TrEMBL record:
Residues 39-50 have a biased composition (Basic and acidic residues). GO terms for biological process: lipid metabolic process. This is Phosphatidylinositol diacylglycerol-lyase. Residues 1-61 are annotated as: Disordered. InterPro entries: PI-PLC_domain (IPR051057), PLC-like_Pdiesterase_TIM-brl (IPR017946). One of its GO terms (molecular function) is phosphoric diester hydrolase activity.
Length: 366
C-alpha cells in the first residue's frame, strides 16, 4: 500500500463533501496508516518542526479562554498501574493475579502527569478495611488510592500554570469521605456554586481559575445523593452533566476511529459548557497463537488491553487527526498506557493538543 503525504488522509469522495461524516467501512478503506514520526500536525506550516517548540502552558492562553476550549491529554483508568505485580499490595484480587485485561497504565499518576497528562480518569472504592482502592470492572487494585491521588494533587499545586482535571468515579457511598480527605487542597480547587444550582462550566476561564491560583477541577460520577445537595458540592461538578463523551467499546482500530469521527464530528453538541472527551481506548484482545509455545500457554499474557493499544494505536490516531482536519477541536484525548510510546501515541497526541492550543491562542487574540 503506498504511503500518503503528511496530510493526505482523505479520499477523493471525502474531499468532495467535507460535511459528510464517514462510515466505518469507508474510513477503514480510505485512511492509510503512515509512520507517526514522519508526520507534521500543522498543515499551514508543513516545514516547521513542532517538537522543537517549547510546550505551551494553559496560563499562556488569553485570559478569556474558557476551560472547555482547552485541549489536553488524558489517561483512561489512570489508577490501574497498581495492578502490576511490582506494585500490587494487599489481598487477593483477579486484577492483581491476571493484570492483562484490567491494567491500562504502566506509570503512576505523577509519572503520567510528567508525560503530559492533565485529565485523569480515576475509579475509586473503599474496601472493608476502609482503605481506598482503584478499581476497573469487577477487580480492585492494591495500594492506597487516596494517597496516590494526594501525590498527584501535590504535583498539580506545584505546576500552577496548568489545569488538572480529576474524574472521580465512585462505588457505593464513598464520595463524601474521600472528598473530605482532600481538604488540604481546598484553596487550589476550582469551586462550584455551593448555594444550589450548578454553575455552567462555560463560565470558567483562564482568568477566573488559573489566574486566581486555582488549577484543580474535580468531576464526580456515582456520588451519593446527599453529597450532591450538601456543602461539599462546591468542590466538584457532576461528570455526566458536564461532559460530551461516549466509548466505542470496539476491539478494532478502524471501528474505534470511525466512532470517534462520527460521534465527535457532531457540531450540534454543547461544546461551550461541557468538556469534550475523546476515548481512544479499546478493550482487551487475545493475541494470535505465538510461535513461542510457552508464551501461548501463559493466559495472563495472552489476553491483554495492551495488545490492541500497541498494534492499532496509529490507526486510531489517524482518525483523531482526521477529525482535527475537519476543524473540530479535540478537547480531551483520553489514552491507555500514557507515556509508553510502544503502546500509545503520547508524543503525537501531546504535539496535537499543543498545536490546537496555539491556534486557540491566535483565535482568542483576534
Amino acid at each position: 500500500m503506498p504511503k500518503t503525504s503528511s496530510y493526505d488522509i482523505q479520499s477523493k469522495k471525502q474531499r468532495k463533501n467535507q460535511g459528510e461524516l464517514a462510515t466505518p467501512d469507508q474510513d477503514a478503506m480510505d485512511l492509510q496508516v503512515m509512520p507517526l514520526s514522519r508526520r507534521n500536525l500543522d498543515p499551514e506550516n508543513p516545514d516547521r518542526s513542532p517538537e522543537n517548540l517549547p510546550p505551551l502552558d494553559h496560563a499562556d492562553l488569553p485570559p478569556q479562554t474558557r476551560l472547555t476550549q482547552l485541549n489536553m491529554l488524558g489517561s483512561h483508568d489512570a489508577g490501574t498501574y497498581l495492578f502490576s505485580k511490582e506494585r500490587a499490595q494487599g489481598g487477593f484480587s483477579l486484577g492483581k493475579t491476571w493484570p492483562g485485561p484490567f491494567k491500562c497504565q504502566s506509570l503512576d499518576l505523577v509519572g503520567q502527569a510528567e508525560a503530559g497528562i492533565h485529565y485523569f480518569d480515576l475509579r475509586v472504592e473503599r474496601d472493608k478495611s476502609n482503605i481506598y482502592r482503584f478499581f476497573h470492572g469487577p477487580s480492585s487494585t492494591g495500594g492506597d488510592a487516596l494517597e496516590e491521588v494526594k501525590k498527584l494533587l501535590r504535583y498539580a499545586t506545584e505546576d500552577e500554570r496548568n489545569l488538572y482535571i480529576l474524574k472521580l468515579h465512585f462505588k457505593k457511598r464513598d464520595a463524601r469521605h474521600f472528598i473530605r480527605q482532600l481538604s488540604a487542597f481546598e484553596q487550589r480547587i476550582i469551586e462550584n456554586n455551593a448555594s444550589g444550582s450548578e454553575n455552567p462550566l462555560g463560565g470558567l476561564t483562564i482568568d477566573n481559575t488559573i489566574g486566581q491560583n486555582r488549577n484543580i477541577l474535580l468531576l464526580v460520577k456515582n456520588a451519593e445523593g446527599s453529597i450532591m445537595e450538601g456543602s461539599l458540592k462546591r468542590y466538584f461538578w457532576d461528570y455526566d452533566k458536564n461532559t460530551n463523551t461516549k466509548w466505542a467499546n470496539q476491539a478494532s482500530g478502524s471501528g474505534t476511529g470511525s466512532h470517534i469521527l462520527n460521534f465527535h464530528g457532531d457540531r450540534g453538541v454543547d461544546r461551550e459548557n461541557k468538556f469534550n472527551i475523546i476515548q481512544t481506548n479499546m478493550p482487551m484482545r487475545a493475541n494470535p497463537i505465538s510461535k513461542d509455545f510457552d508464551y501461548f500457554l501463559s493466559l495472563m499474557k495472552l489476553f491483554s488491553v495492551k495488545n490492541l493499544a500497541a498494534d492499532q494505536k496509529e490507526q486510531v490516531a489517524n482518525f483523531v487527526r482526521h477529525l482535527v482536519l475537519r476543524g473540530v477541536s479535540p478537547g480531551i484525548i483520553s489514552i491507555d498506557y500514557a507515556g509508553d510510546d510502544d503502546r500509545s501515541d503520547t508524543r503525537l497526541y501531546n504535539q496535537l493538543v499543543d498545536d490546537q492550543n496555539r491556534k486557540l491562542t491566535n483565535a482568542n487574540n483576534v
